[in-house]
Amino acid sequence: MDFFEQLGPAALGSRLRRLSEQMTAQAAEVYSLYHVPVEPRWFPVFYVVATEPERPVGEIAEAIGQTHAAVSQVVKELVKQDLVRVQRGEADLRRSVVSLTEKGQAAWPSLQQQTADVRQATEALLTETRHNLWLALGEMEYALSRQSLASRVKAIRDQRAAGEVHIIDYAPQYQPDFKRLNAEWIERYFRLEAADLKALDHPDEYIIQRGGHILLASYQGQMVGTCALIPMVDATYELAKMAVSPAAQGLGIGWRLGEAAIAKARSLGAQRLYLESNTKLAPALSLYHKLGFRKTVSGPPSPYERCNIQMELLLGS
Amino acid sequence: MDFFEQLGPAALGSRLRRLSEQMTAQAAEVYSLYHVPVEPRWFPVFYVVATEPERPVGEIAEAIGQTHAAVSQVVKELVKQDLVRVQRGEADLRRSVVSLTEKGQAAWPSLQQQTADVRQATEALLTETRHNLWLALGEMEYALSRQSLASRVKAIRDQRAAGEVHIIDYAPQYQPDFKRLNAEWIERYFRLEAADLKALDHPDEYIIQRGGHILLASYQGQMVGTCALIPMVDATYELAKMAVSPAAQGLGIGWRLGEAAIAKARSLGAQRLYLESNTKLAPALSLYHKLGFRKTVSGPPSPYERCNIQMELLLGS
DNA sequence: TACATTTACGTAAGTACTTACAAATATACG
DNA sequence: CGTATATTTGTAAGTACTTACGTAAATGTA
After folding, report:
1. To bridge A224 with a disulfide, which of A136, A248, B14, B81 should be the other Cys (CB 3.0-4.6 Å)?
2. If you average pLDDT over every residue of chain B, what do you get?
3. What residues of chain B lie within 8 A of the CB of A34, using their CB?
4. Which DSSP category does A95 fall into?
5. Is strand D less than 7 A from the beta carbon of A72?
6. Which positions in chain A touch B154 (Cβ < 8 Å)?
7. Which residues, listed in sequence order, are joined to residue B314 by a DSSP beta bridge?
């Protein structure tokens, strides 16, 4: 059972489940000790109905933090046991208003007694420990309500990943990566056009030798992103061939590439960046917008079929 | 959601489950963040197989605190995903030895990375709170391993019940209770005999007026137990008509009645108590033994068919 | 060496919830 | 006032485990 020790808090979820299952099993024993005709899993619903009568299913569900479906099923059982009765709501016929039957009323005092005993036992248990589980649970729920575990983990991963992402300049040996990364997404959404193949197969000839630049992003020893700057007229560069591998998306690599490309453009004396894209590519457009690009209509006609939106970023001086 | 506040620690189990479900849901999100072809519920098994290769199913189950059936099912899934491979044990053909495939090996580093990130996030989360959940869980598991919740609750209930159990002397208005309590168990195990009916219907005539005594136990306003002392020859009294209502069993009422009867017999100058019972009634025999009764063969023939064992308790002087 | 018992495992079914979907009723909107 | 949308509930199916049970292999016993 050293699994939990080895893993430590990374197994917090599993450990919580294990203890909760243990408590559930214990609860079953406690119930058999008292002679109450109520099963442990019915308790929350029964408790709410007993303390606040005439509640509809939905409200009970909200009170105990379960779904209406679960409550509906438990109520069905309780009706079968003749512990509660269900009536249509008076004002709203959709509602199922639940209240105790005579048998339910009769069972309530014993159940209250049992609950009081369990509470006393648990409270004693909690004072036996140095770290109070009840308070810890409350604090943990509060902390998670402020920021979920998933987003906390993501923040840590992103921070770690940032240190492992490197933006490097093109070199001929990267041509296969450059082609693969671009072909991957183009073929997913559109189809490769002749203009694509020329640039992807011969980036040296069609981009570098014409005064352009290509940047690549590496992560954990693999090439996971690219983008290119291609000179146009009037101190304008086109930002093109922006691609990030699906396996590396969500790491902010597009942003890093974009920023690096803008910095490179500035250092080349560019006054303006221009790009073409497609409105189907929502995440890409949102990235461009965050980088400062805005929609324009002044661009030249595109050689690519798939382009239906043009954007620009004025760099000032 | 004031259900948990109202109930307090009595709802500890439910609250644990709720948080564990929340964590499970968060885990699913975390997994989708990393591009690992492993589902959250596979993790424990995968982890053990990755860190300690060539483990049979049973050992994996023990390490992660689940049943072998659960592990068997997860392994089946993992085999379908080509993440692990199963071989027959070399020395023991019953064993299913599990090890990682190449694909599993390939997924392992990412999973390790993810685990490290989750651990870091959770550790940060734990230091954010005043009461450390991880330590509290450990302490709670330890406390429960020393004494289960059920037995703690039972101790509290018994203590409370002891104050509510009263042993009182017979009065004519208790005749229906006296009859009901005895008839209840006799009819459950045997059948009512003529000798029973005489004593149960007319205790005044057949017991009290012959110098005998009847004790009753009341609990929460109800009569839940009886026993009788019937004079025999030679300063011997028969302990008879011992009965405790099934709904009140486990509260030590039999013990209280027995002790009261022994005290009463002493005060009457009895030198010996005698009783007849049946070997089918194991709990009753164990109670008599605890009260000091021992098996004997010296008794007179019983007027009751159901009796096949005789016991006595010498009171000394 | 034969036979009963124990051990290891897989499969089926149960459990206590969930999500997904469907039906009935209530409300909003032109 | 009719129709679209929202709300409330019940039912079915899924989930991630469990318990129960059956089979095969190993072990103990006479």
Report:
1. A248
2. 88
3. 157
4. -
5. yes
6. 30, 33
7. B272
In this structure, how many other beta carbons lie within 10 angstroms of the beta carbon of residue A110?
16
Q: Phi/psi at B84 (nearest 5 deg)?
A: -135, 165
pLDDT digits (tens, 9 = 90+) for B98-114: 999 999 999 999 889 88
Strand partners, A214: A228
Q: Which nucleotide is nearest to B68 (CA to C1')?
A: C9
Integer distance in angstroms from CA B141 to C1' D22?
35
Question: What local confidence, expressed as pLDDT, does residue A317 receive?
Answer: 58
Strand C positions with any atom < 7 Å from protein CB? 7-13, 15-20, 24-27
SS3 labels along chain A: CCHHHHHHHHHHHHHHHHHHHHHHHHHHHHHHHCCCCCCHHHHHHHHHHHHCCCEEHHHHHHHHCCCHHHHHHHHHHHHHCCCEEEEECCCCCCCEEEEECHHHHHHHHHHHHHHHHHHHHHHHHHHHCCCCHHHHHHHHHHHHHHCCHHHHHHHHHHHHHHHHEEEEECCHHHHHHHHHHHHHHHHHHCCCCHHHHHHHHCHHHHCHHHCCEEEEEEECCEEEEEEEEEECCCCEEEEEEEEECHHHCCCCHHHHHHHHHHHHHHHCCCCEEEEEECCCCHHHHHHHHHHCCEEECCCCCCCCCCCCEEEEEECCC
Chain A closest-CA separation from residue B250 CA (Å) = 8
Closest-lying nucleotide for A95 based on CA to C1': D8
What pLDDT band is residue B260 in, cutting at 50, 70 and 90? very high
Which residue type does B250 have? G
Instruction: Summarize pLDDT for A178-237 with one digit per residue, the tens.
Output: 999 999 889 888 888 888 888 899 999 899 999 999 999 998 888 999 999 999 988 899
Provide the pairing of β-strand A272-277 with A236-244. Answer: parallel
**B43 and B66 in contact (C-beta within 8 Å)?**
no
The Cα–Cα gap between A143 and B127 comes to: 11
How many Cβ atoms sit within 10 Å of the Cβ of residue B208? 18
Nearest chain A residue (CA) to B148: A26
**Cβ atoms of B30 and A150 closer than 8 Å:** yes
Beta-carbon separation of A10 and B118 below 8 A:
yes
Residues 163-192 (A) near nucleic chain D, CB < 7 A: none
Q: Which nucleotide has the least CA–C1' distance to A89? A: D8
| Nearest chain A residue (CA) to B41 | A14
Residue position matching structure tokens 């203590």? B159
What is the per-residue pLDDT across B15-43, written as a single tens digit (0 to 9) for each?
888 888 888 888 888 888 888 888 888 99
> CA-to-CA distance for B54 and B138, rounded, in angstroms?
29
A99 touches strand D (CB under 7 A): no
Please give the residue that has the higher pLDDT: either B74 or B10.
B74
Who has greater pLDDT, B171 or B10? B171
Q: What pLDDT, on a 0 to 100 scale, did the predictor assign at position A299?
A: 67
What is the rounded CA–CA span in Å between residue A243 and residue A247? 12
A305 has pLDDT over 80 = no
Give the 3-state secondary structure of residue B93. coil
Q: Which residues on chain A are in Cβ contact (under 8 Å) with B17?
A: 17, 20, 24
pLDDT tens, B282-305? 889 999 999 999 988 776 777 777
Specify the DSSP element, H or E, that contains A155: helix A149-164
